[in-house]
């Protein structure tokens, strides 16, 4: 075995789940951020967690509004998932710029991408400083799925976005 950095290990643990974190901006638009570091934390009560860089605009919006929808994007969004992960919503409307059609969830004021395999609507419970990231711990309010969508995963140390079956 040879020594690696933690991020170097990601190539050996692929694929990893990838998601688009949807938050609401002060102007009322939906902001989208690509995140691969998320997990189920508890089933009773239902709680998930995801990590984002401390400088993340989406993280700021989640901390301010206390609301978020974590989506698992469908295969049709592979290119846009990479684009959302390499740009900031602080200066652009990613959904419009990257041609991502949005749709409503029942009773939720945050829209999600039309091609979402899963949508997990949450309220922020707390966030924890974990180094260069914050860990967002969220209560799950509602979960929706579309079995007609093929979920995406991150491959090769997060350098490729593709379904689990290639």
Question: What is the strand and helix layout of this fold?
Answer:
Blueprint: H1 6-9, E1 16-17, E2 19-24, E3 30-35, E4 38-43, E5 46-53, H2 57-65, E6 67-73, H3 78-85, H4 94-97, E7 102-103, E8 112-113, E9 116-129, E10 133-145, E11 152-155, E12 160-163
3D structure, described in words:
There is one protein chain. By secondary structure, the chain is of the alpha+beta class. It has a single domain (6-163), classed as Electron Transport, Fmn-binding Protein, Chain A (Pnp Oxidase, Chain A, Roll). The protein contains 4 helices and 12 strands, in the order αβββββαβααββββββ. The protein has helices at 6-9, 57-65, 78-85, 94-97; strands at residues 16-17, 19-24, 30-35, 38-43, 46-53, 67-73, 102-103, 112-113, 116-129, 133-145, 152-155, 160-163. The strands form 3 sheets. A 7-stranded antiparallel beta sheet has the order 3-2-6-9-10-5-4. It has a 3-stranded antiparallel beta sheet with strand order 1-11-12, with helices on one face. The mean pLDDT is 91.
């Amino acid at each position: 075995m040879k020594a690696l950095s933690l991020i170097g290990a990601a190539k050996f643990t692929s694929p990893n789940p990838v998601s688009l974190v949807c938050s609401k901006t002060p102007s009322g638009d939906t902001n989208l951020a690509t995140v691969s570091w998320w997990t189920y934390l508890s089933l009773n009560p239902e709680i998930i967690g995801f990590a984002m860089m401390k400088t993340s605009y989406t993280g700021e919006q989640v901390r301010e509004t206390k609301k978020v929808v974590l989506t698992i994007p469908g295969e049709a969004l592979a290119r846009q998932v990479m684009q959302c992960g390499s740009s900031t919503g602080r200066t652009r409307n990613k959904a419009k710029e990257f041609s991502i059609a949005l749709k409503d969830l029942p009773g939720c004021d945050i829209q999600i991408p039309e091609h979402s395999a899963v949508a997990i609507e949450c309220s922020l419970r707390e966030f924890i400083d974990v180094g260069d990231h914050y860990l967002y711990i969220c209560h799950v309010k509602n979960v929706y799925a579309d079995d007609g969508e093929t979920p995406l995963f991150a491959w090769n140390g997060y350098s490729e976005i593709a379904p689990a079956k290639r």
